Amino acid sequence: MKRLLSLLGILQLLAATAAVYKQWIPNTNFETASNWDKGRVPCARDVVHFEKDKVVSVFVGSPHALTDMYLPLNGEFLLAAGAAFTAFDGSWDPGCDSGGTVRFADAEQRSWFDPTLWRDVLPSGELRPGGPIFSVHEERVPCRHDDVIFQPETSFRVNTDSAQPVIQLRSISIMGQELNTPSSWAGYLGGPSAPLQFHGNGTLQVTGTGCPDKSGCACGNALDGPRICAALLRAPGRQCPEPACQSPLQPLGHCCGVCGATIDLEFTPDFDLQKYQDKLVQELLSQPRYAGVQLAMSKVHRAQTFLGLVSRGTAPLIQIVLIDDRAGAQAGTSAEQLAADIMQDIAQHGEALGISSGKMEVATGSTATGQVGSPPVSRIAAGTVMGLLFSLLFLGGILFLYRKGKLRSLQMLTLQKWHPKISRFSTSTLCTVQARQRPDGVDSRWGQTPLPWGYHHLSSPHSPSHHSWWDSSQKQIPPE
Ligand SMILES: *[C@@H]1O[C@H](CO)[C@@H](O)[C@H](O)[C@H]1NC(C)=O
């Protein structure tokens, strides 16, 4: 039974490695406590404050009663069915005794190239089982043939600053819709949300093509390697771990030195990266003596030198990185053992595997770096998911408040390049929403005043100083 279970586990792992889906972790949702400076979602007595100059896209999943809300100059609320903002009428506020100003946190610096902001998921969106496979840091950020997922029912804002003008991807899913053709992506970029979600000088480009080469495809993030490592190591607690070996290895695409082993493979047209990785997992890594060893394998480009001096461009090779969980003098020794097994296998079966040569480097707690060479001895199928035209299905529609001036069920609110004040005055019979450009450039606010039917007064008792910039051309919705 145990055997069967572990076999099932391996099969599951193999199935999971076919296509690579990377999911953006942070969001800018209204209901995410960490998006607010007080670490909690604003409640009825709070004054909600969005920075005037910070562009935001904010998903709102449920109804909120609020006292006041300052809006940014440019942004949008995406309201789920049933979500709404209502004015707090002062009567009922369980668990919200002390009102205060609650500010929306700054999402501006969240970088596309921060490897800590992505995770590998299955096409369904579930977290991919960890297993013994890991990725070097550069490949934790979406590679050019990867599928990117922004979770449904979330809003986000990503800084795409890049060393390259164009960041290529196979597909991007937003709000549950996969955009996997250049034209569907172009359509999305032309819509209202994209400029609020993506900023920076790198342009995302959807190609719709997975890696066409069975020997693998280089990730394509090498030029942004320094940006990736800077993002990884920016936070104080995020230094590279102190290596337990004297001269740690520096795998290509990895930000930190590692103890263990690396193997560089030269390959022939017969080489199949996915098959070879599966073989290593099945035949070697799954052995009990290699519990605690992790493997990363990918195609990389190494700069070539001639006589150690002149660069001759780059050559593709397969890099295998092996690390383990041993400590002290034992650090890296399991990985070293596995690397030796792999080298022996290459010496015997290399030709049939499409491997022409292998070069191993080792760094363990007990030895200095050593090198071993072996004598000389396409296509990864990316999962294809049916694309659907992007539509904000459950969001229902777009209502530009400044044009309509009214609505009963707010679905999506887009604030253009003007500075609005929005008020929703709710009584049992009256519902009015206002948006007006502020002439003075002072922060706008979304205030509350329950109004009797037909009444045209619009100043808020909480903000008498703001009274002056309201004009009287109000629109109201008659009671139903
Ligand atoms: C984009 O801006 C960054 C600075 O944030 C700069 O380092 C990089 O070279 C720029 N990239 C391009 C393609 O202009």
From TrEMBL:
Region spans: Disordered: 460-480
Signal peptide from the UniProt entry: 1-19
Cellular compartments annotated: Cell membrane
Keyword Nucleotide-binding set for record: no
Transmembrane portions of the chain: 380-402
UniProt-listed InterPro entries: AMN (IPR026112)
Protein name: Protein amnionless
GO biological process: protein transport; receptor-mediated endocytosis
Compositional bias segments (type: Low complexity): 460-473
KW Transport (keyword) present: yes
Species annotation: Zonotrichia albicollis
Entry membrane topology: Single-pass type I membrane protein
Entry keyword set: Cell membrane, Membrane, Protein transport, Signal, Transmembrane, Transmembrane helix, Transport
Any one cellular-component term (Gene Ontology): apical plasma membrane
